[in-house]
Amino acid sequence: MLTRALTQGFFSLLFSIMAVAQYGTAPNGNFPANYNGDTFTGTVTAAEGDQLTLTYTKGGKTETFVGKLGAGCSVPTTNKSERKMIASDIPQGTVATAFFNRNTKKVDGQKVKENLLIAIRFDVWQGQKIEDDKKKIWPCGP
User: Fold this and answer.
1) Which of 82, 55, 81, 84 is nearest to 69 (CA)?
2) Choosing a second label site near 126 at 20 to 30 A (CA), which of 43, 92, 102, 111?
3) Whole-number Å distance between alpha carbons of 6 and 8
4) What does DSSP say about strands 82-85 and 61-68: parallel, antiparallel, or unpaired?
5) How far apart are CA 121 and CA 19, in angstroms?
6) Where in the sequence is the domain holding 104, given as residue range(s)?
7) Parallel, antiparallel, or unpaired for β 61-68 and 73-76?
8) Is the overall model pTM greater than 0.85, yes or no?
9) Count of structural domains, the chain
10) pLDDT digit string (tens) for 49-60?
């Protein structure tokens, strides 16, 4: 009986870890000192204003992440200059990794959590997978 309970507990833990596998930790890099290392990888399902929504689905489980880009992300343009990319510039269907800090603020006396993007990496752009050695992390914010 004890063995069965331990086995069930182990599989419950394993499946719960697998369900949130889209969350991760940032690789070593040049990040702001206040960055806590959280990432979320998913497909862009909405991009409006300064909000970017990523969705990750595996099996029958779906997880949605909403992050705020703030002042936009610095990305290159075709003429090799940089500009700030806003959420609506990112096409739906793009697979991206958001590097974010989770902040808590008070709104009308209630604590509200928000995810503030500090960087973004594109994993699939316009249907084309980006090779690992060509992926770049683009900083977001002021």
Assistant:
1) 84
2) 102
3) 5
4) unpaired
5) 22
6) 2-139
7) unpaired
8) no
9) 1
10) 889 999 999 888
